[in-house]
Amino acid sequence: xxxxxxxxxxxxxxxxxxxxxxxxxxxxxxxxxxxxxxxxxxxxxxxxxxxxxxxxxxxxxxxxxxxxxxxxxxxxxxxxxxxxxxxxxxxxxxxxxxxxxxxxxxxxxxxxxxxxxxxxxxxxxxxxxxxxxxxxxxxxxxxxxxxxxxxxxxxxxxxxxxxxxxxxxxxxxxxxxxxxxxxxxxxxxxxxxxxxxxxxxxxxxxxxxxxxxxxxxxxxxxxxxxxxxxxxxxxxxxxxxxxxxxxxxxxxxxxxxxxxxxxxxxxxxxxxxxxxxxxxxxxxxxxxxxxxxxxxxxxxxxxxxxxxxxxxxxxxxxxxxxxxxxxxxxxxxxxxxxxxxxxxxxxxxxxxxxxxxxxxxxxxxxxxxxxxxxxxxxxxxxxxxxxxxxxxxxxxxxxxx
Amino acid sequence: xxxxxxxxxxxxxxxxxxxxxxxxxxxxxxxxxxxxxxxxxxxxxxxxxxxxxxxxxxxxxxxxxxxxxxxxxxxxxxxxxxxxxxxxxxxxxxxxxxxxxxxxxxxxxxxxxxxxxxxxxxxxxxxxxxxxxxxxxxxxxxxxxxxxxxxxxxxxxxxxxxxxxxxxxxxxxxxxxxxxxxxxxxxxxxxxxxxxxxxxxxxxxxxxxxxxxxxxxxxxxxxxxxxxxxxxxxxxxxxxxxxxxxxxxxxxxxxxxxxxxxxxxxxxxxxxxxxxxxxxxxxxxxxxxxxxxxxxxxxxxxxxxxxxxxxxxxxxxxxxxxxxxxxxxxxxxxxxxxxxxxxxxxxxxxxxxxxxxxxxxxxxxxxxxxxxxxxxxxxxxxxxxxxxxxxxxxxxxxxxx
Lengths: 401, 401
What we know:
seven-stranded mixed beta sheet, three-stranded antiparallel beta sheet, homodimer, globular
């Protein structure tokens, strides 16, 4: 008889962002154009200075790099943080294989099996996956679309906390909701963590993506929280180079950083080519960020206005990232998203979205919500909204005609 | 008060291969040449077709790749396995971020916290690190230098097995000993696994490195073991491109591969640049392997003969990989290796080696052994052996003169 895989392997969730892919493939084979609003793969070009660095690599031996990162990549990250007003020692920064590995290292460094981590739901679905890998438990605090998915009230935090709780995990600006937490909110959470001796893990991968002249406050800037804060970051996401896998974990807590380094030694090194390309980040003109931000702001506006005009759709205007999570007039977003791919097209096109339940830990929540990533240009987004509106109407009229 | 890091983070071992690095840096600052025999970073050039592929990359968006691997990289791996006589479906193969991630996925897929994995010691030290990350236990079976580190006898396996045991983990050819297991040994282990419903994880990263006309048998070729075997592989190691991080996990057990895919989705994708380079593997002339193998065989011979001639040094001739683990006439290899870096030089040079205790799980073992990687040319190795011989003599005479 074949041996049985581990329980954690059985429990590992399939990606709710990717699991409808076979339906999308089938739609494409039938000649339907599929607008991919399901996944955060930006269409924006990787900045030219990074591509130039890639073209300049001529090593004859593509060798291991230091486990904690190459001196050059570390220096680039430090300069980047300095530009945000955050001074870091080299020992406070470690290069990772994308933000994903930074998140895994941070979670495993603060929590043992059966320990709990408080997380505001809806949350980035892969937190669930990393928790399952490490056998820790995510204890969800529900945020609501009516509040723009801002933090739940203090009573909810007190009620959710248990002696097994070791950390709070936030995403700011938030994937999947686009919410940007205020200074007041972050200071409150830091105070809560300090009071209860919890780590504060903050995924700041979307730090630069804040609209309407706003900014997001890095948890590294919170006075008095130095020993609590562990930041998860990704340069490959920020600079539209998702495939190179270049992230970092940042903390002023030396015990965390020492542990992260030992974890990094276990996997020998982060991708060397990504680190070689990192140096190009220093040469990206400052206009780049403004241009990209203006483009994303336009997209958000197109989507926000377009979606708000569809009968029965509700959302607050999100402040950042490139995601939003509208409520739709459907009972079962899983079924609706699948139906859009397998049973519907409008004008030769359909829309692929990520059903929201996978972004909640509490069963039953998110059944009337979807996550939408705005990584297409405004012309395509405008058409996608029209297709979605037609889809919602047809879905509501199923079986009635 | 600052919160405390997790117990697993506290227990994460520092790399015994890398922890003497500060002593080596200090020696270099004093003008001493350090021969790095501690780490398996080959000096052999990355094959030209792979570097050519790298130079040809001109994507304007360095985008995410599919979680399980790009179709091109998967096809290259399948052609490679076909060349070994192993036919694989696409679903039996998943691209990973180096062999390291393949090893992590394989271990987590078969064992839960507190489960046990049988492993022959001395073993690749990072197995310990991955086990600590995943809270599983390595149950060591001791192999002996006198037996060329071949498998311990059946009684030892029976004695080590417990109901918590879920898998056997082997490295063939072995890092750190250079041992290549025979077909008979592998068939015996597969039979043992079948009898006790255990998975058989085999790290075959050094598959091609077998000398004296021998070959290593892939566990994928073992008849009747299809549902048990999970192979850990690395193309970046095989082709001297360690820094790109390109590995794979291979199994005919679909439950394992499904779980591996869900783990892979959690980290989104393996490095895209490494996968783009992978296509170059198809164009590597068959003479490449022969040339590289001949070079490593020469190095092994230089080391084996040189080390055997040093009074008090014992080793059997290793059959493969590019490591060997001699016994030295010292009481404490940790101290000796540190002393070589901090207190000794000969002819302006010293030697950095990895003390063996970090490669054992049983406390107290390996205290008179070191692991040596032969990743330098024969001229350098010849000098390194002379330096080591002089060092051993001086170390023995400390305090007596």
